[in-house]
Every structure is written in structure tokens, then in C-alpha cells.
Amino acid sequence: MHSLLSQEDLAFKAHCEAFASQTLAPLAKKLGDINDVPQELRTCLAESGLYGPLFPEAYGGTGLSAVRICLAREAIAGVYAPADTTLAMQGLGGYPIVLAGNEDQKKKYLPKLAAGQRLTTFCLTEPEAGSDVSAIQTRAVADGDHFVINGRKRFISNGFSADMGVVFVKTPTAEKPNALSAFIIEKGMPGWNVDWRIELMASHDIVEFEFNNLRVPKENLLGPVGGGFKLAMQTLDLMRMSVGAAALGMARTAMERSIQYARKRVQFGQQISKFQGVSFKLAEMAVDIEAAQCLVYLAAIKKDRSDPAASLSSSIAKLHATEAAFRCIDQAIQVHGGMGVVKGAVVERLYREIRPLRVYEGTTEIQKLIIANHLIKQPK
Ligand code: COS
Hints:
It is built from ten helices and ten strands. It has helices spanning about 5-30, 40-45, 65-75, 80-100, 105-115, 230-265, 275-305, 310-335, 345-355, 365-375, and strands at about 120-125, 140-145, 145-155, 165-170, 180-185, 195, 205-215, 220, 265, 270. The chain has a four-stranded mixed beta sheet with strand order 1-4-5-8. A four-stranded antiparallel beta sheet has the order 2-3-7-6, covered by helices on one side. Strands 9-10 form a two-stranded antiparallel sheet. Strand 6 and strand 7 (about 205-215) form a beta hairpin. Bound molecules: coenzyme a persulfide (COS). Coenzyme a persulfide (COS) binds near residues 311 and 360.
């Protein structure tokens, strides 16, 4: 598996793992369940070097690298999910600017995001537009040298803590009534309003925005009018594989904990790892994890090579890795028995944390739709 990665990527992987165990794990213990991004976590991530692969070198990053984004998420997600969410949101909110920003926008925003001085978010989902992105109802209307945005954006991760974001809104024209456009928005703009702090099954900074006459300068239009749908899809193409990487990290933590527990727990006069019913579960986890790792790394390598099949592979990796991780964590609880369902147990926490990954950035069913569309469209 490691032979898929370059020496430099392996060194980055080791760096991420050391950061996760030596710096992040103690901070996770101290901060516990959080539904915002406290300053300590901001500083810790800013100093970690993990934002680097999200941004080109010219704008303060270490060079865009899907492989390294995945390695970073794999290393930290099983240790502290809120840190992983913050890293992911910096990608979801930053990558549209990398892709479609003009020089002024890139210079203004990207170095601060790369340095972790500002946190960003990605405002796509709405109450009536989740899987069906084209059903977005939030609208932008031109008004002098501004656009005025009205509407609601639901399930916006890091929405409470974010200093800025990228929002996707309808900008209908006679020829394209469903055209979407993207804008860079900033906290403090008149009309930026967090209406509802949503509580999820696992702790998470996630909100619903109500944009009430949000006034956005025209220079904050990101890419062309009508270019929003493709920009959102291209961003998800990169980030979905990294959801798979996060799931992989969570599954690995669950397997490691299960191995430790099965070795030490004694029942019927022997370690439970000696029972096939238990050891086979560990074997099945290892198979699931290795397959997920292959798919995630393959998708990321394709992305970094600008292979047109990267979008298909990203959906395959996300689908398999999140489903496999859910199976692994469920089995990990089974191995732990009663101790697995005690509130605060690592596998209990992972069980709550993994579940949303099968939903967000496109449900498993949406990934199947995308995969099937690719297959059907492929020339014979
Ligand atoms: N990259 C570039 N362009 C893309 C693209 C991609 N990955 N996917 C689609 N497009 C283009 C298509 O080529 C098509 O272009 P033309 O109009 O020029 O032909 C256009 O976008 C519309 O594509 P399509 O007809 O496939 O759009 P649909 O409305 O059927 O939606 C899905 C497609 C379902 C794939 C999309 O809505 C989706 O990804 N939904 C899930 C959204 C999601 O992940 N939500 C979670 C929110 S983030 S937490």
C-alpha cells in the first residue's frame, strides 16, 4: 500500500500521525465535545502544517495535493473529529477560490486560509435542496455595485465559527432559469445571520443561516455568473474522496481499539481474541480497511494526475470507505460488548461520529447515482 505513495508523501503521513498522537490527542482530551472551534483548536491546526496541501504554493500553501489532504484527514479523524471537520471545511470553502478565484480574490483570501488565520465554510445545502443541488432557492439580485442575497442555508458545518464562506445561489436568466452562481461572503457583511445552531448526534459546529438582504460587493462574485453548479460539483469531486479518508481513519482507530480489547478481555477462561467469532470480526475489519485505503489513495492519485476518471473514483472511494467504516465501527462495538456502548467509550463516540459521513457531501445513494451515470456515459 505504501508503495503507492512517494517518499515525500510518506514523510507527510508520518508528520500527520505524529501531530495526531502528540498534539491533537491531548487537546481532544482537554476540549472534549465542542460545537464551535475554540481558539486553541484554531491555533493548533494553524501551526500543524495540515492546511498546506489545500492551497497552491503561490498563495501560502504547500501545493495542492489530494493525496496529502487524504493523508491528513486519515490521520486526525479517528483522534478528534472536530479537528477533521475544520480541516475539511477549510478545503470545501477554500477550493472554490483556488479553482475559480481571480488573482485579487486569491491574493486576498487564500494566504489567510492557508495560515489558519481565517476559517471558512461552504454554503450549498438548503431546507429544500439537499441532494438536488439545482433546486436551490436562495437568490442573488444585482443592486448597483452589490448583489443582494436572500434565502436559507441549512447544515452548514463550521458556520458558527467561520469568518467567511462560499455561498451558492440562484441567479436566473431568461435562457437559464436554474443558473447558480457562487459568491465569497464574509462575517460582518450586513445580513449575515446564524438563525439556528443545529445539534447533531455527535458534537459538531453546524448551523442554519438566514441571509436577509445580505449585501455582497460585486467583486465577490466567484467565477462567471451561472458557473456555480459546476464549481460546486468540482469542489465535491476533490473533497468526497477525503471524506473516505476520514472514515478510514475512524475505522482504523476502531480496529486498533478492538484488537487491544480482544487481547486483554478474558471470558470462558481465555482471551476473547482466541474465539473465532471475535477474531473473524477483526479480520473482516482489516479487509474493509485495506480496500478503503486502496480506493481512497487511488482516487487521490488520479486527482493529482488530473485524470478525468478522478470524479468517478472519488465517489467510489467515498461510498465504499464510509460504508466500510460504519461496518467496522459497528463490529468494534460488538467486540467491546457492554463496554462499547458506555457513553464516552472511544468506539461509542466513533459510532456517533461515523454516521453522518454516509450522508454529507452526497449520500451513499447519490454516489451510486454518480457512479452509474459515469458508467452509462462511458463510450463502449
Ligand atoms: N464536474 C463538472 N461538471 C459537472 C459535474 C462534475 N463533477 N457533475 C455534473 N456536472 C455538470 C454536467 O456535465 C452538466 O453540465 P451541462 O449542463 O453543461 O450538460 C451539469 O453539471 C448538470 O449535471 P447533471 O445533469 O448531472 O445534474 P443533476 O441536477 O442531475 O445533479 C447530482 C447531479 C445528483 C450528482 C448533484 O446534484 C449532486 O452531486 N448532488 C449531491 C449534492 C451533495 O453532495 N450535497 C451535499 C451538500 S455538501 S455537505
